[in-house]
Write a structure and sequence with these properties.
Strand content: 15-25%
Largest sheet: 8 strands, mixed
Radius of gyration: 23 Å
Shape: globular
Helix content: 25-40%
Number of helices: 12
Length: about 475
């Protein structure tokens, strides 16, 4: 057949796909990432707990355990290289009854077996000394100082931008419809045409089983597991300083209470298995469940400060582990499937592992001139008065505040649109600079942000959408709804 279009195609623009793409960009390989949405970080990666897990929960010897601990150790250096927000705030797992202490001991033993450093079991009094708002019922806790919190948007977008700057082609609004083996590789049929690649990386989230089963006789089953969350205002952001878990149950780590890197308080998630891979609707019952369960761990949570609720899907593999590596009966097809918790924590390590496997199989060496660093958008709200004044002198649009809740300037929104893989929608802007993520949830800043998007993209206001084609906000002259 004729020459293949690419050496590698990565299917899926979530945190795992972007991590793989970034690591592949270190090598002499012609790579492309295909994402069906108009932006990266539009699926599972945009709606999760934003936790960098320490690694004590996974079964020793599992892929979850291996990549969680490796990914956690990488996160600090990576956040400095790629300039995204990350804090190693530590985590606690709470035990509420003396008869449950063996479960806490077992969790400690798993953590030690997995290589998690500095784990401690502390008394209830010691836990409350560190976190005064903990329940009086806490008798002991597992304390993991290496646990952390991260901005999942910031991490994913940073990986994607750096991959793109290092030569990876990104095809957004490109939905893969079918994958089949051809001579020398694979054919990918998409809504944008047909493409061929020597290798495929399947990082398609809850759809990873669909693509795997197109090329492999050893079938994979993923169950979409839905989790609802409540997000509280900045006023509640210091209610706890650590990530607070309860002893795990059959559906995972349970409902957590955690600060965010942006100063909010996050509650959740629930765990409900669903059939629909697009079902991200919250329900009153599930949100009530979040409130009921978080009250067990932490006292006096100001639930009246909830500013939004949301839901995300995790890809639960029926064997309860990640599926990572080359499919046994489909040479050149590499899975990154079943990436549920601790997937966000594990993504950097998964990226390294798969890129090394593919580069070795392709006989590709490291390329000269790889750019390991990426600089994020300046945040007006975090600058000193002198730094802000200097920036505004250079860029006056940084002196015009568009989003008052989050103190986001026009300059930040402009940069979010103009930079590598820039935003083309309201959600794209929101994920990059937090416009619309505050108390009013974009109630005041949306019109001005749409004007900026239209101006910078050279498009009519009627074409500006929330999150892709079909989500346009305005109806133009001569058009009607329906």
């Amino acid at each position: 057949m004729s020459r293949l279009n690419y050496d590698v195609v990565v299917v899926g623009g979530g945190v795992t796909g972007c991590a793989v793409a970034r690591e592949l960009s270190r090598y002499e390989l012609n790579c492309c990432l295909m994402e069906r949405a108009e932006d990266v970080c539009s699926g599972t990666s945009k709606a999760n707990s934003a936790i960098v897990h320490a690694g004590y929960d996974a079964v020793p010897g599992s892929l979850k355990a291996k990549f969680n601990v490796q990914g956690n150790a990488m996160m600090g250096t990576l956040s400095k290289e790629l300039d995204f927000e990350f804090q190693r705030n530590g985590s606690m797992v709470l035990c509420f009854a003396e008869e449950d202490r063996p479960g806490l001991d077992a969790l400690y033993d798993k953590g030690v077996a997995n290589g998690v450093p500095d784990l401690q079991i502390i008394s209830g009094e010691e836990a409350r000394a560190m976190e005064p708002n903990l329940s009086d019922q806490v008798v002991a806790a597992l304390y993991a100082p290496t646990g952390g919190i991260v901005c999942p948007f910031g991490l994913t977008i940073a990986l994607a931008e750096n991959a793109c700057d290092n030569g990876v082609e990104f095809k957004l609004n490109t939905e893969v419809l079918d994958i089949s083996a051809v001579e020398g590789g694979y054919m990918l049929k998409t809504n944008q045409g047909e493409f061929t690649a020597r290798f495929v990386v399947n990082a398609a989230g809850v759809y990873a089983d669909v693509f795997h089963n197109m090329v492999s006789g050893r079938k994979l089953q993923l169950i979409p597991r839905k989790g609802d969350y409540c997000l509280l205002d900045h006023e509640a952001g210091d209610h706890v300083s650590h990530t607070i878990f309860q002893l795990p149950g059959k559906y995972g780590k349970g409902v957590l209470v955690a600060p965010t890197v942006h100063g909010n308080l996050l509650l959740g998630p629930t765990a409900v298995d669903v059939e629909d891979k697009e079902n991200t609707a919250t329900t009153a019952q599930e949100l009530a469940d979040v409130i009921q369960k978080t009250a067990i761990s932490v006292k006096n949570i100001p639930y009246n400060k909830v500013i939004t609720s949301f839901s995300g899907l995790r890809a639960h593999e029926t064997g309860d582990d990640f599926v990572i590596g080359e499919a046994e009966d489909a040479e050149g097809f590499f899975d990154a499937a079943g990436i549920e918790s601790p997937g966000l924590s594990s993504a950097p390590a998964i990226g390294v592992y798969l890129a090394e496997l593919i580069a070795k199989k392709a006989g590709a060496g490291k390329k000269d001139g790889f750019k390991s660093e990426r600089k994020g958008i300046p945040q007006v709200s975090k600058l000193s008065f002198e730094e802000r004044a200097a920036l505004i002198k250079e860029r006056p649009d940084y002196g015009t505040i568009v989003c008052r809740c989050e103190n986001v300037s026009e300059g930040e929104i402009v940069d979010a649109i103009r930079r590598t893989l820039g935003a083309t929608s309201l959600d794209g802007v929101k994920r990059r600079v937090r416009q619309g993520m505050g108390r009013c949830q974009a109630g005041f800043c949306t019109p001005r942000t749409m004007e900026i998007l239209a101006r910078e993209l050279g498009r009519p206001m009627e074409s500006i959408c929330k999150n892709g084609p079909g989500s346009e906000i305005l109806i133009g002259e001569g058009r009607t709804e329906g």
